[in-house]
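Students often ask what a holo structure prediction actually looks like on paper. The answer is less mysterious than it sounds. You provide the chain, you provide the ligand, and the output is a string of discrete structure tokens encoding the 3D arrangement of the protein together with zinc ion.
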Amino acid sequence: MQKNLKIAIQIKGRLNDDSLMLIRESGIDLSIGKRKLAASSKNFPLEALFLRDDDIPRTVADGVADAGIVGENEVLEKNENVIIAKRLGFSKCRLSLAVPKSDEYRGLSFFEGKKIATSYPKILRKFLDEKKINADIHVITGSVEIAPGIGLADAIFDIVSSGSTLISNRLKEVETVINSEAVLIKHPGLSKDKQKILNELIFRIESVQRAQGKKYILLNTPDEKIEDVAALLPGMKSPTVMPLAEKGWSSVHSVIDENDFWEIIGKLKKAGAEGILVVPIEKMIF
Ligand code: PRT
Ligand code: ZN
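The corresponding structure tokens follow.
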């Protein structure tokens, strides 16, 4: 009997939706029970455990879960014995030092002897030690950004994404200490069977990730223009060219990057392409 891979997922919060979507897009159906503490799959040997993100690194280190999806910031702060198996590319943010907007900032020596409020004391301590800065770390959980305004600290060390929370609290970001994104972590001593399931999961995740930002393009072109049109389409290897029922015309298929989309379409039309169709790609498997 094959054992299931137990994967820890944030129960609610910023990571929950994207984590579940990634699993679904990997073709894994999860039936989530009413109380939403655990879920199992009928079409893949996987079980999900729903936890607070702070608890995920330890749960994976202890082997209660075999793997987990969590912010890299939590992995670094908790410093548990886990391995990052795959970077997932969502929930991107950074951990930064910020000071009151009105303060003059000339460099890290600003923090010498100052009080810094944070929920990430270990990451901050390591950074300050490396930079040989002596500062007082004041640990608070939640609403760190209000600490300078109410006189609780001189500066903060917190997660920044768009930067609007800092602006609305009259703070400015002065040093980025780490960049973070959601990561798939695993227990260091996974059994062979479980590692095999994890490998299959990673293979599927990579196929989904590869397709992100890519479009499948189909177009018609007079045969004499095939070369000009094909030169504009990088494709996975080279574009697929098929004859149309109408003599002297062909259909060309390829994959393009969403970012290059409008530029390429304009060039294709100029080169003689007609009837251009652009469709989303769900997965790309090499
Ligand atoms: O309840 P639980 O403990 O599970 O959740 P949580 O409240 O600890 O975490 P949650 O759900 O808020 O975030 C989970 C993870 O998402 C974090 O650990 C990060 O890895 C990642 N992430 C990405 C963020 C942000 N972006 C983010 N913007 N986590 C928090 N924020 C907060 C930040 O604390 C600050 O208050 O948003 C504010 C800043 O956002 P901007 O856009 O105004 O700069
Ligand atoms: Zn948390």
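The CA atoms of residues 109 and 133 lie 7 Å apart.
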